[in-house]
UniProtKB/TrEMBL annotation:
PANTHER family the record matches: HOMOSERINE DEHYDROGENASE
Gene Ontology MF: a single term: homoserine dehydrogenase activity
The Aspartate/homoserine dehydrogenase NAD-binding domain, residue ranges: 9-127
Pathway field: Amino-acid biosynthesis; L-threonine biosynthesis; L-threonine from L-aspartate: step 3/5; Amino-acid biosynthesis; L-methionine biosynthesis via de novo pathway; L-homoserine from L-aspartate: step 3/3
Gene3D superfamilies: Dihydrodipicolinate Reductase, domain 2, NAD(P)-binding Rossmann-like Domain
Residue stretches making up the Homoserine dehydrogenase catalytic domain: 135-311
InterPro entries: Asp/hSer_DH_NAD-bd, HDH_cat, HDH_CS, HDH_short, NAD(P)-bd_dom_sf
Keywords for the protein's UniProt record, in alphabetical order: Amino-acid biosynthesis, Methionine biosynthesis, NADP, Oxidoreductase, Threonine biosynthesis
Enzymatic reactions: L-homoserine + NADP(+) = L-aspartate 4-semialdehyde + NADPH + H(+)
Protein name: Homoserine dehydrogenase
Length: 333
C-alpha cells in the first residue's frame, strides 16, 4: 500500500518536494518498501496554475487535508508562524509525522511541537529550516550522543554571503550587489530579513536549542546585518588579508551562552574564510571530534526539498523499526 503524504504550500519548496517525490520513487520504494503518494496539496490561491499530475488533489481547506484517510506524513512549506503552527499541531495530534522548512515557525514553536510529537508518538523533521541541504541538524543529533558542542559559527544566510562576496570580488557597492542578488532570484523584493540578520538569527536559535538544550536571552543578543558595510571597508579588509563574513555565533563560556549575529572580518585561517557566493557553512567546535565544517547550498527548490525528503525517509525508517520492535516484544517465547 502506498505511503500517503500531503504538502502544505506549493511555492518554491513545496513544488521541489512534490517533484523530488515523483522523480525519486525508485529510491523511496527501495528504502521504504512502498511507493509514496502525494494524496493532497494545500494552497492559498485556488486559481494559480500548478505543474502537477492530472487528478492531483489540491485544496485551500486544511480540514480536507487532515481528513485524508491513512495520512502518514505532512510536508510543511508555507510562510510565517501562522497558520503553520496550528496546522502542524493538528497533524501531530492526528498521529502524522511532520517535516517542516519553516524556520520562523520552528524558531518560535519548535520546543512545543517537539514536546507534542513525543506525546503523540510521531516524529518531526526540521533539517530544512537551517542551511538548506547542509545536514547540520542530523550531524548535531548524531554528534550529541557523546560529544559536547562548545561553539557553533555559521554563515546561515546565502543572500548576505552573496552580497559580501560580490562587494569583495567584483568591487560592487552594497546597493549594486543587492540588486544583482535580486536579479538572480537570491533576494526577495523586500530583503530586510536577509540583510538585517533576522533570518540568520532565527536559524541560530534553532541550532542553539538543539546543541545546548537552552538559549540565551535573545533580547540581549547583538543582531546586526550587512546593510551598513561600505565597499571601502570591504576593500580595506581585503588589502589586509581579511574577508567580511556574516557570522551567527553561539558559544558556551564560563557556564553561560554567548551569542551574536554580525559581520566579522576573518583571516584566511578561519574555516569560513573561503565560503563564497550563496553557499552556507557551519563550523562546530566539539569536545571529542574536534572542529568540523559543513558547507553547501543553503536554499533553493531542490536543496531544500532534499533536506525534507531525507528527513522523511529517516523518520519513516525509524517508525518502521519501532513498530517491528514493538511487534517482536509481543511475540510469546
Ligand atoms: N525558498 C527557499 O529556498 C527556502 C529554503 C529554506 C526554507 N524555506 C522556508 O520554506 C517555506 C516556504 O518557502 P517558499 O520559498 O517555498 O515560499 P513561497 O514560494 O512563497 O511559497 C509559499 C506557499 O505557501 C502557500 N501558502 C502561504 N500561506 C498559506 C496559507 N495561509 N494557507 C495555505 N497555503 C499558504 C502559498 O500558496 P499560493 O501558491 O496559493 O500563494 C505558496 O504555495 C518558508 O517558511 C521559507 O522560510 C524556503
Amino acid at each position: 500500500m502506498a505511503i500517503k503524504v500531503a504538502i502544505l504550500g506549493y511555492g518554491t519548496v513545496g513544488e521541489g518536494v512534490y517533484k523530488g517525490i515523483q522523480n525519486h520513487q525508485e529510491q523511496l520504494i527501495e528504502k521504504l518498501g512502498d511507493a509514496v503518494e502525494v494524496a493532497g496539496i494545500l494552497v492559498r490561491d485556488p486559481l494559480k496554475k500548478r505543474d502537477v499530475q492530472p487528478g492531483t488533489f489540491i485544496t485551500t481547506r486544511f480540514e480536507e487535508i487532515l481528513a485524508i484517510p491513512g495520512l502518514h506524513a505532512v510536508f510543511e512549506a508555507i510562510v510565517g508562524k501562522e497558520p503553520g503552527y496550528t496546522y502542524l499541531s493538528q497533524c501531530i495530534e492526528k498521529g502524522c509525522h511532520v517535516i517542516t522548512a519553516n524556520k520562523v515557525l520552528f524558531a518560535k514553536y519548535g520546543n512545543e511541537l517537539l514536546k507534542k510529537s513525543k506525546q503523540h508518538g510521531v516524529h518531526i523533521g526540521y533539517e530544512a529550516t537551517t542551511a538548506g541541504a547542509v545536514p547540520i541538524i542530523r550531524t548535531l543529533q548524531e554528534l550529541l550522543k557523546v560529544n559536547r558542542v562548545t561553539r557553533i559559527q555559521g554563515i546561515l544566510n546565502g543572500t548576505s554571503n552573496f552580497i559580501l562576496t560580490e562587494m569583495r570580488a567584483n568591487r560592487l557597492s552594497f546597493g549594486e550587489a543587492l540588486k544583482l542578488a535580486q536579479d538572480n532570484g537570491y533576494a526577495e523584493a523586500n530583503p530586510e530579513n536577509d540583510v538585517e540578520g533576522k533570518d540568520a538569527a532565527c536559524k541560530l536559535k534553532i541550532l542553539c536549542q538543539l546543541a545546548f538544550g537552552c538559549t540565551p536571552d535573545w533580547e540581549e543578543v547583538e543582531v546586526e546585518g550587512i546593510a551598513a558595510i561600505t565597499s571601502g571597508e570591504v576593500q580595506k579588509a581585503e588589502a589586509e588579508g581579511f574577508r567580511y563574513k556574516h557570522i551567527a555565533d553561539i558559544r558556551a563560556e564560563g557556564g553561560k551562552l554567548k551569542a551574536s549575529v554580525k559581520p566579522i572580518a576573518v583571516s584566511s585561517a578561519h574555516p569560513l574564510f573561503s565560503v563564497e557566493g550563496v553557499d552556507n557553512a557551519i563550523t562546530l567546535e566539539t569536545s571529542l571530534a574536534g572542529n568540523l565544517t559543513l558547507q553547501g547550498a543553503g536554499a533553493g527548490k531542490f536543496p531544500t526539498a532534499s533536506a525534507m525528503l531525507e528527513d522523511f525517509s529517516a523518520i519513516l525508517e525509524k517508525s518502521l523499526r519501532t513498530k517491528i520492535h514493538l511487534l517482536s516484544a509481543r511475540v510469546p517465547v
